[in-house]
Amino acid sequence: MAATELVSALLLFLLICSSDISSGEKTRRPQPCKRLVLYFHDILYNGKNAQNATSAIVASPAWGDKTTLAVPNRFGDVVVFDDPVTLDNNFRSAPVGRAQGFYLYDKKEILTAWFGFSFVFNSTRLKGAINFAGADDIMKNTRDLSVVGGTGDFFMTRGIATLMTDAFEDDRYFRLRVDVKLYECY
Amino acid sequence: MAATELVSALLLFLLICSSDISSGEKTRRPQPCKRLVLYFHDILYNGKNAQNATSAIVASPAWGDKTTLAVPNRFGDVVVFDDPVTLDNNFRSAPVGRAQGFYLYDKKEILTAWFGFSFVFNSTRLKGAINFAGADDIMKNTRDLSVVGGTGDFFMTRGIATLMTDAFEDDRYFRLRVDVKLYECY
Amino acid sequence: MAATELVSALLLFLLICSSDISSGEKTRRPQPCKRLVLYFHDILYNGKNAQNATSAIVASPAWGDKTTLAVPNRFGDVVVFDDPVTLDNNFRSAPVGRAQGFYLYDKKEILTAWFGFSFVFNSTRLKGAINFAGADDIMKNTRDLSVVGGTGDFFMTRGIATLMTDAFEDDRYFRLRVDVKLYECY
């Protein structure tokens, strides 16, 4: 293993040297043309909370089921959600939009997820959607998804969404803080 | 609730004021560099129509199954599809491509969906794919998804796809009109 | 059918003529600003290989199950994966990252798939993720997905990922060569 690791390290070093993004350039990142900090709240269906639940397991691996999170680390569970989006971290605040789409857990060893979803806004003040895709390395303090597009007030936008787990309670409730930094605005 | 709503409204107002896209700018949208209007046709598998079906439920919530749409509002059903794409609204027209990917229903109160799919072209006249992602607020007359990328004749494109439900029959057939407006062309 | 095909052909011809990308322009594609060639390895769970498996069927059509690939052509199977990414085609090489997300098989007549996933890097040399989406026409020698975004060292990138099946063994193992060509770098 040591030998293949060394070869891999060398090849990777060459790979990075041959790329044209130096670490110096990386520090000169542009300023966002638009920025929003929002929260969304996910209450998973567990067979008894149909009234309150905002999400449900819809697919699971052979060893899982749809009312219990799979062991280990929820690997293979796919969850569809329609979560309220709020401006602060209070679940009872009036929602300004909905987070709609899916996430799936994709690693056996630790908790990681992959998201495909939208923030959907439909008020007199804000209309349209921001569309997200990407990997969520849940155990890290912050992690970045891609904003892959937008519609309405967010026409054609692109950017980065930085997630933070703001609450994580007894397998049934989590709250994410999403810092949406848009770098392409029309 | 009134108080939190007021606070939310105020915060949202400030949020929007601080953003650099004014409603004046929004009216100055660019012209598409390329535009296509296409239709696709979805016939859902119901346990008896294996010959004709172009899509199938592959995941459903705990209370659902794979040959019946879940109640209420199909929430949690995930559908994989390979639908013919035509230039007009006639199901029997010769397909010019395929719409391939998935959609999922993601709201308990009304019909809404989330799409991840591609228009795949493979003729002498048109090759490549257009890749879509986004929320579909089905009950609205028109709604916008993002074109998140393209390949072949649609190399690196981005844009907006405006969906209209052109037909919706007895839970088993729907036809969408897709107005693909590309704003970034290479 | 002949008549509708003719009409479709004519309409499609007009459609293409009216678009502003001529075939002459298509040959003047830009050079990538960054390029990586990587491999990823997928071992599907079959009910007996829990130790080695890197992926699992989590959803399937009514006629399928989660330890056997659906017939015909795996249509409707959804697979969640966490696959090692290596710099060469040797499964035992030290991984430089993980490929995480899902693929689904979406055609009854032949093998085709749709991917939503990320290459996730987390080493001292390379950090961040590249996010992919698109259709995989598996029976073709090469096929292109979209790079829809990136984070960390791949901040805001876009591009094309050209897939080649490098190995495909007994329904349980495949290896993909991924030529990632990035055309937008920050």
UniProtKB/TrEMBL annotation, chains A, B, C:
Predominant location category: secreted
Sorted UniProt keywords: Apoplast, Secreted, Signal
GO terms for cellular component: apoplast
Signal peptide extent: 1-24
GO-annotated biological processes: phenylpropanoid biosynthetic process
InterPro entries (UniProt xref): Allene_oxi_cyc_Dirigent, Dirigent
Entry's localization field: Secreted, Extracellular space, Apoplast
UniProt-listed Gene3D superfamilies: Allene oxide cyclase-like (2.40.480.10)
Protein purpose: Dirigent proteins impart stereoselectivity on the phenoxy radical-coupling reaction, yielding optically active lignans from two molecules of coniferyl alcohol in the biosynthesis of lignans, flavonolignans, and alkaloids and thus plays a central role in plant secondary metabolism.
Subunit structure: Homodimer.
Family: Belongs to the plant dirigent protein family.
UniProt-recorded name of the protein: Dirigent protein
